[in-house]
Amino acid sequence: MPLDFTQLSHDLAALCRTTAEFIREEAATFDRAKIEHKGVHDLVSYVDQETERRLVAGLRQLLPEAGFITEEGTAGPDAHTEEFVWIIDPLDGTTNFVHGLPVYCISVALTQHRELVVGVVHEVGRDESFRAVRGGGAFCNDQPIRVTDVAELNSSLIATGFPYKDFGKMDAFLQILGAFFTRSHGVRRLGSAAADLAYVAAGRCEGFFEFNLNSYDVAAGILLVREAGGHVTQFLTDGDPLFGREIVASNQLIHAEMQATIGQFWQ
């Protein structure tokens, strides 16, 4: 019998909501002395690791045959060959969490034969559950969401993320950032790609771009934007935004303008 992806999305959303309660409890007493560094500015905490362990345990009950791609590696080696693979970021926005800035998310997606079929982003601070199923639409707290119908970049709000470990393309990025400053209503940096993508899907901003991202940063958000009527590509081509390390997401109407703006400075 084929999997019921709609029911699976509800079960996944419930698991993420329960796990978010653990994150909120830890946020109240978190000690910054307990952080670790994966890189100079790439932080991880026991909260990331324990959240991932809880998610993996719950997901193994929901779909025992699925493999995993996880940020913290608690499920063992990444799996790219199984029919079904969960892609997990247990705490997207760890730096925000560590500093007490309340924008951070759980992001979980399921692929079937490398195609996204289910995605949930749970924004912990606002306790908002964004959920999408391939072909079934996108929702926030079970209410349907859609991208905006803003047709021009100069009437749009754009989100982005700043480089924090690979600064080799900083000059080009700063030129792109400056172009968006002058050609839009403004640029916002929330510190969580999962939140950025969920907010494009919900119509809170018109577009989002960032580079040097991993699949677990964007998997659920890509499906949210697509199912909310938006478009997601790489910077200059359609490419593969899931594993391609760079992403442009929009309401479709401003997508060509966003890519053209990036293309002026990006090689």
UniProtKB/TrEMBL annotation:
Gene3D superfamilies: 3.40.190.80, Fructose-1,6-Bisphosphatase, subunit A, domain 1. It comes from the Bacteria. It is an enzyme of class 3 (hydrolase). Its cofactor is Mg(2+). Belongs to the inositol monophosphatase superfamily. This is Inositol-1-monophosphatase. It comes from Hymenobacter segetis. PROSITE patterns: IMP_1 (PS00629), IMP_2 (PS00630).
